[in-house]
Specification:
This protein is an alpha/beta fold and 587 residues long. The protein is built from 21 helices and eleven strands.
Length: 587
Amino acid sequence: MEGLNQKALERVVSQRAFQMGNSFPCQICVVGFLCGVCLTSLFLALLTSFGAASIGVISFSPFLAGISNSNSTSSMTIHGVGGDYKSIPKERERIMYYEESTISGSDERVFELYKEWGDTLSKLADAEDQSSQKMRSSKSNVREAPHLENCMLSAKVNQRLDTRLPNGSFPAWTIWKGKLDDLPLSYTDEHITKYRDQIISDGAYPPWLAGSDEENYPLTRKVQRDLWRHQHPVNCNDPTVKFLVADWERLPGFGIGAQFAGMCGLFAIAINENRVLVTNYYNRADHDGCKGSSRSSWSCYFFPETSLECKKRAFELMNDKAAWENGIITGRENYTSRQIWFGHIPRAWGNPWNIMQPTTEINGSLLFHHRKMDLRWWRAQAIRYLMRFQSEYTCNIMNIARHQAFGMEAAKMVLESSSDDLAENIQENMNDIERFVWSNHKPWVPRPMLSMHVRMGDKACEMKVVGFEDYMRLAEKVRKRFPHLNRIWLSTEMHDVVDSSKSYKHWKFYYSNVTRQKGNMTMAIYEASLGRETSTNYPLVNFLMATEADFFIGALGSTWCYLIDGMRNTGGKVMSGYLSVNKDRFW
């Protein structure tokens, strides 16, 4: 009965609606509405044609397709002024930003140059024969990319700077930088050669350092030179040379920062026992991106910690039972966890940590001293040495990251500052200075840049975590003193942090676009969800980008922030300072 009543009601309503539709007033309304739609469409079409004729139209689709192709070699993208390269709405928003800011036909040229650079990176990454790698061929019409590095050239120069000369003396660490050592000298310049050879034999300071003694931790330049000499004996087969061979830590729950800290502890043991440290299996390099002998090795990402001759000798001794019994070789299992993590810091250079400059701010005050000053100083020295030179693989992923973050800004800058008429002549007339002088400059990044690492998530079990607004409060403090600062390199595992950054409209944030943690997911589960290659590459990119910044904010209770601060203090940036959100822990 209820069903019949419902159907009857539906028929009544339908009939009433039909009657209303046939009424004259309703028909007039419908006709009027349709006419309005037609007039509006015609008006918009005329307006679009007029706009195209007056200012030109930016084509979105070809550019988006080009970006997709140029980023095909990377599993991560970088947000910057340009937004998310894999998100069409964000890309449209970014293009509109440039359209509104320039209102000219030059935008298409900017996009095209950016795409050409991206295509070059894709070809280099896909190339089987890496010997053909050049950031710009002498016959190429593509303009120089100031934010990209010639990775093959850098690796070649660094290899020379990391190898003893045939006579067993130090590498060519002279007062002449980089490629200038390859500058041909005539017979009349023999006095220059003689003087340079004398400097080499005396042992100049390493080239991977920047700044004076006052701009680094105490004795940094001397310590780095001594560490290299210790790790590169003249004769690795000498019976008196002893070794410590160790895998990188791979216990569940150990993050990449903890692995670095653990190896710094083993490095300290090796120095104290006069052993050459030889690293073995590195699980984070056990992926398809690391090719050949570099797979599962630290050398996939950075230059080896010792010479190939010493590694070969150490691995031979691992199979010699007598060598283990006589203590010629030791391994991780020979030492307790306490010795590795909290053992004796090398005293070969005295106690330089006692005179470290107070440039770290905790809770509004400079930190003069704490009970782990020696450990802080040593880990900074150790990680600087281990990361002294990037491998060609790391150089390439850094190129991709810089291009995705700063490529649009670089393209716009290059086009605005160059002349088409003079470009060819300039290239012909400046070959020598480009090859021997300007090639030593680091890749361009927009400056000033503030590094901010926001640590939350499962770190709450080790320290008190604070909200993103506390980090930004410190950023505003820096900006008050340096009003030209408006860029932040943001590294974080938390999705909420990235969302929160979008509310700070007067800052430009750059960050890697990877899946981030939500809720209380543990770091181990999070990294497993990303896969081995991505979970290693994107943190390293963030780490290295952070070390190149001009100002620093983080949580020194985090090992990752602790190590970034160490790179700051051995990278000529002591006076940049470090502001920490921690009030209860800073070591």
